[in-house]
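Recall the central idea of this unit: under ordinary conditions, the amino acid sequence of a chain determines the structure it adopts. In this exercise we apply that idea directly, starting from the sequence alone.
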Amino acid sequence: MCSWVRTGWLGSLQQHRSSSGIATLFEDLMGQGVTRLVPLFLLLLPRQGAEACGTMGCCFQDPPYPDADSGLASGPRDLNCYRILSNAGYECSWEYEGPAAGVSHFLRCCLKPGRCCYFAAGSATKLQFSDQDGISVLHAVTLWVESRAANWTEKSPNITLNLYSSVKYDPPPGNIKVSRSAGQLLMEWETPAHQDGAEVQFRHRTPGSPWKWGDCGHQDDAGFESCLCPLEMDTAQEFQLRRRLRPGVSGGPWSSWSSPVCIPPENPPQAKVRFSVEQLRPNGRRKVTFHEQLPQLELPEGCLGPDSGMEVTYHVHLHMLSCPCKAKATRTLRLRKNLSLSGAAYDLVVFSRNRFGLGPNQTWHIPAYTHSEPGVLNISTRANRTTMHWPAQAQGMTYCIEWQPQGQDESLATCTLTAPQDRDPDRMAMHSLSQASGAMRQKECYRVTIFASAHPEKPTSWSTVLSTFHFGGNGCRLQPRRPGAHNMCL
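Accordingly, the structure predicted from this sequence is:
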């Protein structure tokens, strides 16, 4: 009987979709007994859309909810559909205004009147598909979004477009080069592959302020793009850029915004720095202590991260003025709480650095420590040679011997370097000078200072061994300074 029903009655069954219609048909043809078979036949019949709708492709059936718009002002909006260059696919994205809990989104598409389908997107507000999913990409189609929440439906405005021609460009890449040019910011980046002829916009904001918009214009140069943007003198800024295929070619949606480009102010706030210099310690070094108040720069919302490019670092440039014959006189260090320096004379420069280079600086002079220690240096002069002996430091030390006539400027000092030498049994170091190399003359008073270093290539490694006066006759009028701390403030 079942075989006969399938072959002889199938046409009649397909014309009676409702259960009551099928029951009446069976009662007419086979009597009351056949009515009990109706549920079995209903299970065998295809429901509407079951054959056409699977997990892939656009479903060419009515959506699983009533076709009614709630009329609410909230719901889906700002629908954009476009071709993705990177994977040859297509994408639609939209925004949803209102509570998102329990909302399901459906992307609707009509190829022509009466020929429509839908994608179920679930809670996502973005959906990707291909040209194999039943939607024409070479002809104009109409798309919109329906969002279903509880027992109502919200609809977005329709858009009609040719999907293949609607190309979404990528935003500028993350490695945007920034420089200053004639009081403005010049931003430059490489053009993403196969995305020439773009139109570019930017937006920027300062801390606590809304976005302001600007236009970079059409990009004609092959291989790279650029934009001139305003530069704030005293305030940090956040910039973002976006691109699209320029109108008039075939048009296209805007790309997403680029990552934030964070710009420090033209005139960064200056640190307040003061320092104190202690007396020379027995190890021949003195402690320099910095007391700084570093300014806190107010930042826009997108520039609060540690890698935003807004970092301002503070440095100290050290110039050792004493012992001019040494290999290297200067060194730049990150500003830190303390430095340990010899008794030499120094110039200190404290400055800031940001992504554009150096900021304003502050300069101080630390005079040489001139407390004399007579008796620790033995000097003998014979004929045209002067020989010095002094207490040796650790083995392998390089010594710098500096001498200058009393009362003359420090810049007129003469010096010589000794090669590292082994200590003699008396633990004394020795050096001999000839008259030709600047040996001290008879009957003249000199200030003699000796420095030592195990790493003479580092200006911060020197220590003072001794500082005293020497007279090539029967005495020298000493005028030592009283040792003490020098305090210098901005």
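The first helix runs from residue 2 to 14.
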